[in-house]
Amino acid sequence: MKLVLASNNAGKLAELQQLFAPLGVALVRQSDLGVGEAEEPHRTFVENALAKARHASAATGLPAMADDAGLCVEAFGGLPGVDTAFYATQFGYAKGDANNVRALLEQMQGQADRRAALVSTLVAVRRHDDPEPLIASGRVAGEIAPEPIGDKGFGFDPVMFLPQFGKTFAQLPPEVKNANSHRGKAARAMLELMRERWASLLAPSVLP
């Protein structure tokens, strides 16, 4: 089954391609099909993911899946949340992962409570007007490290410290990260939903 990924983020595509390969799902980035990015006016991950999935499906006529993910910092009341991708721009920096990390560490100076969670919400639709979208979420709690550590991953991975590993996400091998990340958890939940609810769209060889 060909599934449009309503994202132009190469890091997300690589992670999700690896996670969905066992299901026989071929993920295609929307930009490779000439689809522009959807507006994300909502204040929750699930609403934005649904808007993006519907937009990609309407433009291509194919089933689509969108991921809306972000960092929720306890000391900031759960922010930046849905504004994570543009976090750095609030402080005069250009949009980008490195600047997001820089801005976060600056704002965390003097904060005793460094608890945070990475959250991912996946929404998949069979068509743009699918009345029953599949929704799966994943969440990983950790702490914001005082400085970036590691060179793997993307986004806030270098400063997302996981006490159970004693490392940041950026220090973990991809297979370990995928097994424990917020996006990995959401993807595994989505895989089960697809097996259960989208059986007619999947190849017979990947069904139970």
Give the gist of this structure.
The chain has a single domain, classed as Maf protein (Alpha-Beta Complex), CATH 3.90.950.10.
Q: What descriptors fit this protein?
A:
alpha/beta; Maf protein; seven-stranded mixed sheet; 30% helix; 208 residues; 5 helices
How does this structure look, described?
With about 210 residues, this protein is an alpha/beta fold. It has one domain (about 1-205): Alpha-Beta Complex (Maf protein), CATH 3.90.950. It has five helices and seven strands, in the order βαβαβαββββαα. A hairpin with a 4-residue loop joins β6 and β7 (about 165-170). The longest helix is centred in the first third of the chain and has 16 residues, at about 45-60. The radius of gyration is 17 Å and the shape is globular. The mean pLDDT is about 90.
Please name the CATH topology: Maf protein
Tell me about the largest β-sheet. Answer: 7 strands, mixed
**Total of DSSP H or I helical runs spanning 4+ residues:** 5
> Quick one: overall form?
globular
Q: Main sheet: which strands, in order across?
A: 2-1-3-4-5-6-7
Q: What is the strand content?
A: 15-25%
Low-confidence stretches: none
Number of strands: 7
Order of helices and strands: EHEHEHEEEEHH
Q: What would you call the quaternary organization?
A: single chain
Task: Label the CATH architecture.
Answer: Alpha-Beta Complex
The level of helicity is: 25-40%
Please state the average pLDDT score. Answer: 91
Number of domains: 1
Distance between the termini: 16 Å
- Using the CA coordinates, give the radius of gyration: 17 Å
